[in-house]
Specification:
Strand content: 15-25%
Number of strands: 8
Helix content: 25-40%
Oligomer: single chain
Strand order of the largest sheet: 2-1-3-8-6-7
Number of helices: 6
Length: 190
């Protein structure tokens, strides 16, 4: 199976030897704010059979550390964190790179608001990863590149890449949990 949805910045790290046991597909999606148009299209017209996709990791807002909840440095969180075993696998691997994961109160409310949702609706274990779920100028004119913490972004990227490699190398594919919030996606799982 393929794990889809991670950015091209990780390709070089994942291409080094030894290669992951599973293939990793990189997607740049569009149209999230217009109803998840790109991710829904991909799920209906995949590059590899969708039943071979074991996970989707959607990366959002990794560069900003000035979260509305306070600074987030060297850490990232998941939407639907308790919906599957994937966050636990990724957290353990990220820790080897000095990166932690955190629980954002209310993060489950973000689960169906990003491109991971199209994959989850097809039964694929899927989460969005973020450093700052929201920040003061989120979706505003003032959200500019000079506010990105590039050193932190590089550190978090290393942690996420380790997590992707752990998922790709795991003997078992990620599985939905018994959490009530995971029920609609678990019921659609192949």
């Amino acid at each position: 199976g393929a794990a889809s949805g991670i950015g091209p910045a990780y390709a070089k790290a994942l291409a080094a030897d030894p290669k992951p046991k599973r293939s990793v597909l990189f997607l740049a999606l569009f149209g999230e704010e217009e109803g998840l148009l790109g991710s829904e299209y991909y799920v209906r017209h995949p590059l590899v059979p969708i039943h071979r996709t074991i996970a989707n990791l959607n990366l959002e807002q990794l560069g900003r550390t000035d979260s509305s909840d306070g600074p987030e440095i060297g850490t990232f969180g998941f939407t639907g964190e308790g919906y599957s075993d994937l966050p636990r696998t990724m957290a353990a691997a990220a820790k080897t790179q000095g990166v932690s994961t955190y629980h954002k109160e209310g993060s489950d409310d973000y689960f169906d608001r990003s491109d991971n949702y199209s994959f989850a609706a097809a039964g694929i274990v899927a989460h969005t990863l973020a450093v700052a779920f929201e920040f003061p100028d989120y979706h505003e004119v003032g959200d500019e590149a000079n506010k990105i913490d590039y050193a932190n972004l590089a550190k978090v990227d290393r942690g996420i890449a380790a997590g992707v490699l752990a998922v790709a190398d795991a003997a078992e594919a990620p599985k939905w949990s018994n959490a009530a919030g995971a029920k609609p996606y678990r019921d659609d799982a192949r």
